[in-house]
């Protein structure tokens, strides 16, 4: 049993670095997709959607990847703290932004957006 | 191909990228008229410059930039901006010509001076070989503190730091003497609350011309 | 009309402000071993109180942390810093000579640790007090913004 | 591979910066700056891992905490004294108002 456990630990020590790097890369690509959405979507609310969703999920992927790569438990604790703070502040800021834009009377664009480039290329 | 993604090349690429972003943000700040956008872009500038300080290993400077530039300076700039107008006035062309020439001359002089600068992390440069090297050698024996920045700031240069703290104190005092201590709004608020007898966080619309029956 | 307009922000701020203050104290006392120190910790504490003022209104923040307290805090911080210098003078050393605080030979670090910790606390008080004084000076000149307006 | 992730996040930061420059309303700019802050937190963490000194995460924590404050401040103060100007500004950021 103990040999099996040490075996598991050895495999884990080998596996976690490529796994963590892969998760970092995946999260970074997700963030990149989100920023493309922020750049190309037509109005503030859809841009908010793109930025908010990819910020939370992509940031969580990157932070979990960095946790897998980290050399000590203090680093893991700090990364977990960053994760918690981002999960608290990022949706709250998005909510406040949408609320302020709605209060100020910014109208969403409803229906077809004139030219054909707005349809069919949302990811 | 493998050498592209490890070690120093990535850090150099990151440096160039961050400096490029800084340059673009600075140009955009100079071109904009809306002061709100300028305040937000200056916050962005401090974000990027803190990342760049981390990339060149100046961690304490990065920490100060992170603490001051993101929160404090944005709030103070907003408060100062609300006391003035919200947009900058465009200057006439001839009035812009003189500052442009001054900026070009200063920039040319600075670029000319960078030729003589030592490389980043050069051990034989004047800053690293002289008193800095001495501090690095004797710092642990003298103070027993691992982070060398803290003993240099607080122990070797303690008198300077006393002066800096006094400067911060005097700055706060001068702003308060110029703008008032901010207690007048609190007094008005309490008076309004006493008049409408509406306590707590109800946020009653505090119009003073309507007397409640 | 009776709904709380920013209930999400209030809840998040209530959870966030103590964490910011605790992180500021971590920065303060971890400055010997990593990046950080009194100046950064003072600014972070000031930012926590500014967040309170932004969410709950400037008058509420002025009741919690009065302006008279902040400007006294700034003065007290500078006095703590200078007091360490005079303490060293009274012990027979030079101004701000921490080695003389406990009459230690070179190589002993007790006086250095105590002296640096006390002056960092002085810097913390001075910087946070000055920053909050500046913030109150600006915030007191701007009319209060109602919750329904933003 | 971490360096590749870092470069991807930096490219994302550049795209967000573009949105902050051309944003038609001010809310677009606020959104871009807020998202830029999150990206900076991630970039600082990844930079620590690329330079093999992940002790520098304190700065990332500071940004994760403080970026929220600046966003809220800008949101709160933007509507002040805006009775004279139209609320939704369709033009670029360079229009003149009182």
Domain count of chain C, please report it. 1
Main sheet makeup of chain A? none
Average pLDDT taken over every residue of chain A: 83
DSSP strand content of chain C? under 5%
What global shape of chain A is seen? Answer: elongated
Low-confidence stretches of chain A: 116-123
Biggest interface between chains: B-C, 57 and 64 residues
Order of helices and strands of chain C: HHHHH
Shape of chain C: elongated
Percent of residues in helices of chain C comes to: 55-70%
**What is the CA–CA distance across the termini of chain A?**
48 Å
Instruction: Sketch the topology of chain A as an H/E string, one letter per element.
Output: HHH
What's the rounded overall pLDDT mean of chain C?
86
Helix content of chain A: over 70%
**Poorly predicted spans of chain C:** none
Number of helices of chain C: 5
Q: What's the alpha carbon Rg of chain C, rounded to whole Å? A: 19 Å
Give a summary of the structure in a few sentences.
Chain A is mainly α and about 120 residues long.
Overview of the molecule:
The complex is a heterotetramer of chains A (123), B (213), C (150) and D (98). Chain A is an all-alpha fold and 123 residues long. Chain A contains three helices and no strands. Chain A has one domain (16-105). The model of chain A is unreliable at 116-123 (pLDDT under 50). Chain C is mostly helical and 150 residues long. Chain C has one domain (7-142). Chain C has helices at 7-29, 38-56, 58-64, 67-90, 110-139. Chain D contains three helices and no strands. The longest helix of chain D is centred in the middle third of the chain and has 25 residues, at 26-50. Chain D starts with a helix and ends in a 20-residue tail after the last helix. The chains are: A mainly alpha (123), B mainly alpha (213), C mainly alpha (150), D mainly alpha (98).
Keywords:
heterotetramer; A: about 120 residues; mainly alpha; about 0% strand; B: mainly alpha; extended; disordered N terminus
What's the structural blueprint in terms of helices and strands?
The complex is a heterotetramer of chains A (123), B (213), C (150) and D (98).
Chain A: H1 2-40, H2 44-69, H3 73-104
Helix pairs in contact in A: 1-2, 2-3
Chain B: H1 8-31, H2 35-55, H3 59-82, H4 93-114, H5 126-129, H6 131-143, H7 149-156, H8 158-179, H9 183-196
Helix pairs in contact in B: 1-2, 2-3, 7-8
Chain C: H1 7-29, H2 38-56, H3 58-64, H4 67-90, H5 110-139
Helix pairs in contact in C: 1-2, 2-3, 2-5, 4-5
């Amino acid at each position: 049993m103990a040999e099996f456990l040490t075996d598991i630990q050895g495999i884990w020590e080998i596996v976690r670095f490529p796994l963590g790097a892969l998760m970092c890369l995946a999260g970074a690509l997700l963030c990149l997709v989100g920023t493309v959405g922020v750049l190309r979507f037509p109005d503030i609310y859809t841009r908010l959607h793109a930025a908010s969703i990819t910020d939370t999920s992509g940031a969580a992927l990157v932070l979990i990847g960095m946790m897998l790569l980290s050399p000590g438990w203090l680093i893991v604790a700090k990364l977990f703290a960053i994760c918690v703070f981002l999960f608290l502040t990022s949706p709250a800021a998005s909510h406040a932004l949408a609320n302020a834009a709605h209060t100020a009377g910014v109208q969403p664009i409803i229906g077809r957006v004139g030219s054909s480039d707005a349809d069919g290329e949302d990811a | 191909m493998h050498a592209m993604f490890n070690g120093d090349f990535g850090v150099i690429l990151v440096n160039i990228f961050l400096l490029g972003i800084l340059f673009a943000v600075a140009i955009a700040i100079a071109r904009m008229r809306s002061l709100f956008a300028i305040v937000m872009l200056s916050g962005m500038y401090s974000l990027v410059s803190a990342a760049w300080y981390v990339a060149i290993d100046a961690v304490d400077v990065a920490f100060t930039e992170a603490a001051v530039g993101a929160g404090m300076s944005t709030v103070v700039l907003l408060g100062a901006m609300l006391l003035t107008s919200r947009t900058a006035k465009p200057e006439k062309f001839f009035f812009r010509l003189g500052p442009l020439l001054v900026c070009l001359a200063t920039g040319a002089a600075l670029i000319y001076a960078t030729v003589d600068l030592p490389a980043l992390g050069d051990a034989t440069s004047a800053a690293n070989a002289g008193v800095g090297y001495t501090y690095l050698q004797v710092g642990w024996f003298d103070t027993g503190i691992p982070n060398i920045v803290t003993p240099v700031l607080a122990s070797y240069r303690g008198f300077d730091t006393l002066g800096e703290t006094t400067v911060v104190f005097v700055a706060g005092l001068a702003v308060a003497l110029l703008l008032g201590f901010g207690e007048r709004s609190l007094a008005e608020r309490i008076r309004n609350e006493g008049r409408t007898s509406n306590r707590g966080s109800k946020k009653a619309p505090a119009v003073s011309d309507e007397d409640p029956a | 009309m009776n709904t709380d307009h920013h209930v999400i922000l209030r809840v998040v701020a209530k959870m966030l402000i103590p964490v910011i203050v605790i992180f500021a104290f971590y920065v303060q006392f971890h400055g010997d071993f990593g990046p950080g120190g009194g100046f950064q910790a003072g600014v972070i504490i000031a930012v926590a109180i500014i967040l309170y003022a932004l969410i709950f209104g400037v008058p509420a923040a002025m009741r919690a942390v009065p302006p008279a307290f902040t400007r006294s805090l700034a003065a007290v911080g500078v006095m703590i810093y200078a007091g360490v210098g005079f303490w060293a003078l009274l012990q027979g050393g030079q101004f701000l000579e921490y080695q003389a605080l406990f009459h230690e030979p070179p190589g002993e670090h007790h006086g250095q640790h105590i002296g640096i910790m006390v002056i960092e606390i002085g810097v913390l008080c001075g910087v946070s007090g000055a920053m909050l004084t500046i913030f109150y000076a600006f915030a007191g000149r701007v009319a209060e913004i109602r919750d329904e307006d933003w | 591979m971490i360096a590749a992730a870092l470069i991807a996040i930096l490219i994302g930061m550049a795209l967000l910066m573009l949105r902050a420059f051309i944003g038609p309303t001010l809310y677009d700019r606020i959104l871009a700056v807020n998202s830029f802050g999150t990206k900076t937190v991630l970039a600082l963490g990844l930079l620590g891992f690329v330079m093999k000194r992940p002790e520098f995460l304190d700065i990332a924590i500071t940004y994760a905490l403080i970026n929220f404050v600046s966003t809220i401040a800008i949101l709160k103060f933007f509507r002040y004294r805006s009775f004279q100007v139209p609320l939704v500004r369709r033009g670029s950021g360079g229009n003149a108002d009182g």
